[in-house]
Amino acid sequence: MAATSDTNTDVLTIADKTLSSRLLLGTGGFRSLDALAGALAVSGSELVTVALRRIDPGQHGSIVDVLDRAGVQLLPNTAGCFTARDAVLTAKMAREAFETNWVKLEVIGDERTLLPDAPALLEAAEELVDDGFVVLPYTNDDPILARRLEDVGCAAVMPLGSPIGSGMGLLNTYNLRLIRERAGVPVILDAGVGTASDAALAMELGFDAVLCATAVSRAEEPETMARAIRLGVEAGRLAYRAGRIPRRLYAQASTPDEGFPEY
Amino acid sequence: MAATSDTNTDVLTIADKTLSSRLLLGTGGFRSLDALAGALAVSGSELVTVALRRIDPGQHGSIVDVLDRAGVQLLPNTAGCFTARDAVLTAKMAREAFETNWVKLEVIGDERTLLPDAPALLEAAEELVDDGFVVLPYTNDDPILARRLEDVGCAAVMPLGSPIGSGMGLLNTYNLRLIRERAGVPVILDAGVGTASDAALAMELGFDAVLCATAVSRAEEPETMARAIRLGVEAGRLAYRAGRIPRRLYAQASTPDEGFPEY
Amino acid sequence: MAATSDTNTDVLTIADKTLSSRLLLGTGGFRSLDALAGALAVSGSELVTVALRRIDPGQHGSIVDVLDRAGVQLLPNTAGCFTARDAVLTAKMAREAFETNWVKLEVIGDERTLLPDAPALLEAAEELVDDGFVVLPYTNDDPILARRLEDVGCAAVMPLGSPIGSGMGLLNTYNLRLIRERAGVPVILDAGVGTASDAALAMELGFDAVLCATAVSRAEEPETMARAIRLGVEAGRLAYRAGRIPRRLYAQASTPDEGFPEY
Amino acid sequence: MAATSDTNTDVLTIADKTLSSRLLLGTGGFRSLDALAGALAVSGSELVTVALRRIDPGQHGSIVDVLDRAGVQLLPNTAGCFTARDAVLTAKMAREAFETNWVKLEVIGDERTLLPDAPALLEAAEELVDDGFVVLPYTNDDPILARRLEDVGCAAVMPLGSPIGSGMGLLNTYNLRLIRERAGVPVILDAGVGTASDAALAMELGFDAVLCATAVSRAEEPETMARAIRLGVEAGRLAYRAGRIPRRLYAQASTPDEGFPEY
Fold first, then answer.
1. CA distance C217 to chain D (A)
2. Which residues contact C4 (CB under 8 A, 6 or more apart)?
3. Do C243 and D263 count as a contact with CB atoms less than 8 A apart?
4. The one catalytic residue among B22, B95, B104, B227
5. Is residue C113 a known part of a binding site?
6. Residue B4: what pLDDT?
7. What's the confidence (pLDDT) of residue B60?
8. Where does the Thiazole synthase ThiG domain lie (chains A, B, C, D) (predicted)?
9. Which of A222, B173, C56, C217 has its CA 20 to 30 A from that of D12?
10. How far lies C211's CA from each of A60, A220, B88, in Å?
11. Is A192 annotated as ligand-binding?
12. Residues of A in contact with C109 (CB under 8 A)
């Protein structure tokens, strides 16, 4: 029997949506639709990203059918957009196609790093919020930008741990802590997760959720990794709530001679 | 519903014992026997350490009753021993008291760091193996010493991640990898775990199990942390088996334009 | 006798200025003008920052006299500016006051972290370049922003290692490498240096120069630290040019049995 | 002009020897005797290691001539010895050959990692001290073992930063700090240095000296790297003495509004 966590009462609320799962899944990169369906099922994810550019939403036998059968909510992204204008346009097309005003906003700075373009991201976010979108921006780990994205009305902020698909984990936990500490909206780690411990660490920093794509879809066994990262997210969340011991420079015996009753 | 893992078939074998759980729990430092019992139950641990020095095994209403009711196997340790001679003597007394020839061997170098004394540890290990003990030594992260401990017949090696009770996690993953890579017996991370991601990371390095004490017993909510670390161990084990993506210096889109079918 | 480095021929060129020293010094935070003068002399720095807000350039017996006597060039900064408009105005006042069109551009996002505000920084940089300034922007470690700053005509980019005055060194060497790799203008590490090894590391990553302020001015012995960091910069520059050995996972004897002549 | 450091009065004393330079150089791995001579000259090193096994001390035109001309003191090592007995024997032969009772003691645990064998090292150290040697043991980063080596009479301890020739720098600064903090004899970082900042960091931790071999001999330009590492050692030593600023989680302006006189 695996451990169970009391996730029932520890829900995540983004805008008007309430989620039991704190793992968001990206749908790109799977070797087949079956692999996607399998990973999705074990992940427990309730909110998954899709890229409009790859999908014809009306086509049957497509990824949309898979997601529909899984009963998950779609979060269209603007992957592949390199300007604010292009991202805004893509968001609007996705709103039509998927009948949702939620968007994971990406405005990419260059193809090699896929890092976000900060000024263009802020500009696009502001425009989409004004147009009634629920905007979840993929951003770098800049605490100032995160704050400004929140200030223009984003429903969450989604800083990266490291570049998309790099699997390098959380490169700058200092900045990520700062973002978490000062945010008034949910903070979701997006990009960089390579394995379960990365996801656990993000949650232990107080992040509200984790989004994974490549780490699952390109693992040797995507389904097993989906389960691993799901458990990692749950483990990290519980550990955050449990109140960890402080780090100490010197040892402390678990059985000191004084200070509490011997039994 | 929490995720389930197929731990049924992925068992851990140490000497002649087969365990379903890869989490070992230390019993020291809990605020009460009830706290211990609660953490033990959710941890799923099947093998727990006890310090002879703190316990009168014959006394009722004691920690031994708690462990007995939990149905776990005891692993006596030689905590507090500073010489090979003292550790060997303590191991023999524990064998009598707890009616088991298993021992977690500790020979400590000083009180401040509680780091092991390498030469004395090797000497005690050899003597105890010769005397018929199943010896699981608490060692530092020295790959050469780990190999020598295995060579004298230890049933597992238990390197530290960082000092006992420090909660600093895994300070030298390079050495820990080396130990794992070259060991022919189970390798169990002992000491240094502060939170769930530390446990997950150890398992992702290929460790066979993790032992926690202070991280659970001194957490603000020991029971919640026991569950967190249990899930962390399971997450890390699954991630190890799933085959993680490689770390890359540059980004890789989860939805590249070429290389596999569009759907 | 201390080592000498052939810095004579390894000069740094920013816009139309050629510098022998790769260490820039900030002038704030010293306990006295004498302490500043002493540190400045041993640092070898030829370009030092001054904050207009703290200085009345016409006043005798002031910091300006000290810098004048030291024969260094002034680089006015816009410390304390929180908007593009304020930074631009301050730059223009500094141009009048110090009779230089060079400016170290700072647009700060908040008082607690003193991190730069990316969109406002880019806006101010563009405006100042258009107005004929030689702009050296203090920026975060975002490779995309660094590129955009270069694209609008900045004469150098000055990414941080960690927040101003934090002394935390280089938190994200991955991003710093990316910035270095793609920049066509000099890259100067600004902020975060706490000690000599931080400065050396920045230079080993290929950075063209290092700016220090707090690390020197608030050290217990500023003059000794100025000398230390000067040597650190020189050491790192030489190491960069010397071509370091690769990192290896396994040992390599310096005296292997094969591969080159025994002597 | 390069910076000069007041190394004149900051000497290093090991046993009865007083050294101005805190950089020890290994002589193995150079592409030619000329390369060795060049690197040696710029390094400023006064104490260099030689491996008896590679050298016929009586042969002219050999490495010994080079070292003789350089006026440096020889420190024979026992490289290539895998047992205490072999190391002791080699040390005695070296004493005859080089007419010095100093020895850098190496007892290696395996060929792949070249990590020391702790129990065998301690045994050999004790025996050599009893026989009148001045023993400088190459050890791992184990604080307990370092203390025991000092207790048996070693004149210094030489912990590694990472495996010989790996260039991975200082993997476990926590343990290295512990060793430094508790040692009553000089502590010399031996092995792992890959570049100048590694050497500076070791000195900033309070180490008394640094030994380099591969980092210099196998650099693309050994002479330039020798100069770089020499400056790194000096920089780190000065920084240690200068008293660095503390690390802070938040920014601190170098020009705060309060707390010291405005000028």
1. 8
2. D1, D2
3. no
4. B104
5. no
6. 44
7. 54
8. 13-256
9. C217
10. 59, 46, 59
11. yes
12. 143-144, 147-148
**Distances from the Cα of B195 to the Cαs of A200, A203, B125, B210, C36, in angstroms?**
9, 11, 30, 12, 46
Pairing of strands A17-19, A12-14: antiparallel
- For residue D262, the model assigns a pLDDT of 27
The chain A residues in contact with chain C (CB within 8 A) are: 109-110, 113, 115-119, 122-123, 140-145, 147-148, 162, 168, 171-172, 174-175, 178
Q: Compare CB distances from D213 to C4, C166, C254 and report the shortest one's residue.
A: C254
A161 labelled ligand-binding: no
In the numeric block, which tokens belong to residue D239?
Answer: 């920084």
Asked whether the beta carbons of residue D109 and residue B174 sit closer than 8 angstroms, the reply is no
Q: Estimate to the nearest angstrom the gap between the alpha carbon of B156 and the chain centroid.
A: 10
The residue-averaged pLDDT of D72-98 equals 94
Catalytic residue status for B92: no
Of D190, D194, D196, nearest in space to D227 by CA: D196
Chain D residue with minimum CA distance to C191? D251
Q: Tell me the residue type at B160.
A: L
Q: Judge whether B242 is annotated as a binding position.
A: no
Contact A251 B217 (CB under 8 A): no
SS3 of residue C125 by DSSP: helix
And the tokens for C206?
């290929």
pLDDT(A255) > 80:
no
Looking at residue A84, what is its pLDDT?
Answer: 97
User: Residue C123: inside a domain, yes or no?
Assistant: yes
Question: How many domains does chain A fold into?
Answer: 1
Radius of gyration of chain B (CA): 19
Q: Name the helix (H) or strand (E) containing C212.
A: strand C209-212
Q: What is the mean pLDDT of residues A41-53?
A: 91
Domain CATH number, residue D157 = 3.20.20.70
Residue the block writes with tokens 């989860």: B254
D14 in a structural domain? no
pLDDT at B249: 75
Helix pair angle (A173-182, A143-151), 10° resolution:
30
pLDDT in tens, D105-148: 999 999 889 999 999 999 999 999 999 999 999 999 999 999 99
Long-range contacts, stretch A108-113, CB < 8 angstroms, 24+ apart: A108/A79, A108/A80, A108/A81, A108/A82, A109/A82, A109/C143, A109/C144, A109/C147, A109/C148, A110/C144, A110/C147, A112/B250, A112/B251, A113/A163, A113/B250, A113/B251, A113/C143, A113/C144, A113/C178
Q: What is the pLDDT of residue A253?
A: 66
Q: Region A204-212: what's the mean pLDDT? A: 97
Asked if B174's CB is within 8 angstroms of D115's CB, the reply is no
Residue with tokens 């993953």: B173
Residues of C with CB under 8 A from a CB of A: 109-110, 113, 115-119, 122-123, 140-145, 147-148, 162, 168, 171-172, 174-175, 178
ipTM for this prediction: 0.89
**Binding residue per annotation — D118?**
no
Does residue D6 lie within any of the structural domains? no
% of chain D with per-residue pLDDT over 90: 76
Range of the structural domain that residue B67 is part of: 22-242
Strand D102-105 relative to strand D134-139, pairing = parallel
Which residue in the set B29, B228, B238 is minimally distant from A224, CB to CB?
B238
Chain A hits for C168, CB-CB cut-off 8 Å, are 174
Which has more confidence, C263 or D136?
D136
Tokens representing residue A213 in the block: 């794509």
Sequence-ordered list of residues with C-beta below 8 angstroms from that of D137, at least 6 positions apart, any chain: D104, D105, D106, D116, D121, D125, D149, D154, D157, D158
Report how far residue A137's alpha carbon sits from residue A77's, in angstroms, rounded to the nearest whole number. 9
Q: Catalytic pick from C22, C95, C104, C227?
A: C104
The identity of residue A168, as a single letter, is M
What percent of chain C clears pLDDT 90, i.e. is strictly above it? 76
Is position D56 within any domain? yes
